[in-house]
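Narrative summary of target 7.
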Amino acid sequence: MLKEYKSSLAMMFRLVDLLIVLFSFYVAYSLTFGQSLNISQLPIQYPVFFSTYLILWVYLSSRFRIYDSKRLSTFRYEVWDVVKTVLLCFIIATLPAFFIREYPLSRLFLLYFWPLQTALSLSIRFILRETLKYMRRRGYNYRQILIVGRNTRASEIAKKIEESPEYGLRILGFIDATENKNGASSSCDVELIGNLRDLESILRNEVVDEVFVTLPIKSHYSKIEQIIRLCEDVGLEVGIPIDLFHVKLAKSTFSKFEGLNLLNFYTSPKMSWQLIIKRLIDVVVSLSLLILFLPLFVIVSGFIKAISKGPVFFKQQRVGYNGRQFNCLKFRTMMDNAEELKKDLMALNEMDGPVFKIRNDPRTTKFGRFLRKTSIDEFPQLINVLKGDMSLVGPRPPLPDEVNQYVLRNRRRLSMRPGITCLWQVSGRNTIKFEEWMELDRQYIDQWSLWLDLKILLKTVPAVFLQEGSS
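Modeled conformation, tokenized:
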């Protein structure tokens, strides 16, 4: 899903590149000596070369950032990065061979090895790049951009985006400073959807993955800082061609777009090997549990159909990553017209804030109370996890009506994929106040790690069995 997968690709590439190094070594040795590689009979200079080369490759490939996202750079820059890395590894790794004069490396071996690894590494990258371009041209794997500023630089960026669908970017529209009279002198047709006063409303009501700020720095310095703080509250990434600003929570990183240096501010965890493992765990665990619980699904479905009229599953629109809505699945625990009766029960709400919960909800069936007490009603959300709408651990997905009532800082909980369980789930659930719940979600995002996810999962098991805070 969008940017989340770029680290998965990077990890895959690291493994593929190591396999290419091994394959190139094997082929070069076999072609040079006309025999298959036998590790036990390998002359000492070749293990020394291979070990040195492998260590250098791991270090220099990270040093030259050849696994960073290349979405916004041309292939020639990637070619140069790969060739530079391979060449340096090759030159340095051959140096130890000069100290083993009795057993020099074969020049023919070196002649085979270097071009083979270079060609394979570039071929794999070219194939992936063209595959991703093909997908992006057809509307997959895209990021929606809001451009703040309506000037020549903004026009150039918008034009390049529109002319290059392979970047996987879509422009939601422009907003501009009210007093900025510099109209865009570009032929690209992108809608002006408001001014700076509308930014908060746009971030609340539209799907935005990243904000590009192109306002003049000198005349709009304070406004740009306000924009960054606003996006910081929401958990959105900001791209801006300027120096660092003073921010409370956001971290920063550099990126490039068509030669333009951007400084990106972000608060939610950036893609890393930990998030790759998190997604891998989500897929493996959710698929395994769905298979394991299949008999339970059949039994529960039978009871639900036998006891009350209506569907087995309750589908409800929830808000997920950066405001994307999805159908959250649960076993139906209420009568079929429960949503229609909700307005008549609002006065009985036991939760503060924009959340509706009643401990003894009259709409709940007897079997539904059992499902809720045991949290079995949430088991179908494993399907949402498998699909990628949710994760095993993350802030609980809110209703659209609830999100509309959030103060802005609470929208930052949408900057991570929602989960089945979270800190709120294992900290008392319905017994804690709404603002404490929101603070727990912000704490989870700020302190996220695989270890934190594991601790929450381990605490979830006794919380479910002891029925802590459930209703």
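The longest helix spans residues 107-137.
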